[in-house]
From TrEMBL:
It comes from Urechidicola vernalis. It comes from the Bacteria. InterPro entries: Gfo/Idh/MocA-like_OxRdtase_N, Gfo/Idh/MocA_oxidoreduct, GFO_IDH_MocA-like_dom, NAD(P)-bd_dom_sf. Residues 7-135 form the Gfo/Idh/MocA-like oxidoreductase N-terminal domain. This is Gfo/Idh/MocA family oxidoreductase.
Amino acid sequence: MSNKLRLGVLGGGGDSLIGVLHRVASAMFDQYQIVGGVFNPDFEQNKGFAEEIGLPTNRIYSDFDTMVAEELKLPEEERMQVVSILTPNFLHFPMAKKLIESGFNVICEKPMTTTYEEAKVLEASLEKSGTVFALTHTYTGYPMVRQMREMIKEGVLGKIHKVDAQYYQGWINPIIHDEESRKSTWRLDPEKAGISCCVGDIGVHAFNLIEFTTGLEVDTILADFNYLYSDNKMDIDASVLVRMSENVKGIVRSSQVATGEENNISLAIYGDKAGLKWEQENPNYLYVLTDDKPLQVLKPGHAYNSDLSLDGTKLPPGHPEGIFDSMGNIYKGVAKAIRGLEYNSGEFPTMRDGVRGMSFIEKTVESNANGNVWVKIEG
């Protein structure tokens, strides 16, 4: 029998971008084998999709509860070891909770839950189970983001005093300006997406990148949202001031109505010795800025990079790697954890990141609703 980890998948069927991303990532390092799941709520479409991607249909289930029940009947050496949750936001919590309590390891799309309280419940369940949980803040998998983290840890920047994270998209522009379209999109429906659209979907990525790279935690925030229309209940643009300590401050900027923008993520961290800048649309370049030397550009795959960066680099220098590779690095780290192997804490985001992220999302909503006031992050 194959020694690959047996992977189940929930959601991600049809033409889902996130489904393709996870399937490719799971195959990248030959650590996983997809054995079944529930790709689509319609059973016939579910089976049809499984056949389309070459999976046998004997472990393609009609619904989530049936999958868990049937998998638990199998001998431990045959049942799914880890399950990826790629469904709409409102299903993340109930699925992850049941999987954890049933002894499965979990890889979950973000946001982890729809409320901070759910996140705390999930955290308590994980502590009891002792299983592995990973949250796919995908951009932490990029080699040069990991290099950024390690350089900051080594003190290259000195004392940090300024952080600036941006995530700009324009995809919702054609939807938000049409009354019927904005009422029928699940990401603008609080019942399915949670209390936030823009911050919950992309702003939380920028927030996570700040904490991932600096090793510091955001303490208080002040948020200003834009909804554009009075009948729209969800934020589609947000500017969030952040304070990490008395002397470390910055901003998280996110927008889904930044006309013409595709996936413009940028991160800049400044200290008293140097600064570091990275952009997701040009992910192979990490810029090092100082006052007394020319601009320095670091690239992946070279021996001058950290072990964590090099572990996430598959190709020789000069061969571009991208979003699939970044997600693949997260899956690789999770495989190490499940197998009980030694791994770097930066190899995949954890439950802790999910709890922090949900607190950030809720507190931005609270800050904006109360007149753009400073509020403290919990968790």
